[in-house]
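Morning!

As promised:
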Amino acid sequence: MADEPAGHALVQITAPNGVTWTRQPRGISSGPQLLEALSVLIRMNSDIALIWNWWEEDRHEREHDRVWRILAEWNNGAGQREHTDEELEAFEQRWCKEADRKVEEDKTRRAELVAQDYDEKRADSRRQLLRKEADAAFFQHVIDAPASAAQLKEAARRRDESQAEAQEFRRQVGNPDDVLDNRGYLPAERRKQHLDEHVRYWRYPMLRELRQKDRRRFKTLLEMPVLDATHMCSECQAPIEWHEYDLTLQLFRARPARGSVAEKLSVLMPGWWERCPASTAYQISHVWGGAHALPDFTGEQWRGTLPPLLRAIFVPSPTAKKFTPPKPQPLATVPTGPIADVMAKLQELQATYPTAEVRQGAHGRWELWPAADEAKP
Ligand SMILES: [Zn+2]
């Protein structure tokens, strides 16, 4: 459809769902702009690729306003007349009631699923399986760039051990993707939710913070390729690959219950409670020490195993400031004043610094500097 000036001809466009839209006489947006606005409206709450970089505080609101400004210029023949306040209120009430009904229905359905299919032991074995796989991957990264022969040998032993344990858990669990959690959610549903949370509650705040503090890391994170749900951990808001490096994002984890074993363990092993159960637990083993720690393993080596993107995001630039030699200072200064006072002061200083040079400094004052040869290191 051609976009002709309002008043000359009817401007219409048919959306992919077959609905024909007609532009209001004073509208200025084009047909393709309307279609784009409709598409954004449908996707803006769920399409992660679309909202991946909508990190600015008001970005979602701006997009919402922009889309509705365009939509207000068109009509599709439905609901042409103005509604009364009572009608709108009744509509809102119906809508809320319907939404509540759906939530309740979903809760009931999930409770039934839990009653029928939830198996605590199987769910726990599934988490152990994920952890053993992450452990095996972690030790493989060490094997790829070992710090010593002793480390290589031990890492290979532990990789093999983790793989064997993972295999045993896999045998017990069967298909890990059909294991319900205790709320009635499948791993695929949780991954989808975690991706959304990753973007809104980690990526956006992180980008806002880095924008102020560290432009290099900001740019790196901004350019991070878009994730999809299959990249995510089903147990936390981190991509599953991060767990191979002991990086986790448990964004909404409550503190352990007071007086519980978990609380005691969290005190004994800092980081244990905050860690995702699907992640390698190497860091905690390392802190625990003894046979749990790989020989010769250091934080520097860990940083070296990180892929460039993770290193850039999680390893802050060294804070060591560039060496800037101090600005040279004169040995002494003599402020401007009556000539007799200046001469007297200079004579006095000459006795202290017999080899110094007298130079004219800023604001007419006199400065005593080491002679050129002496100033050299
Ligand atoms: Zn996780």
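The pocket of zinc ion is lined by residues 233, 235-236, 238, 243, 248, 276, 278-279 (CB under 6 Å).

Hope this helps with the figure draft.
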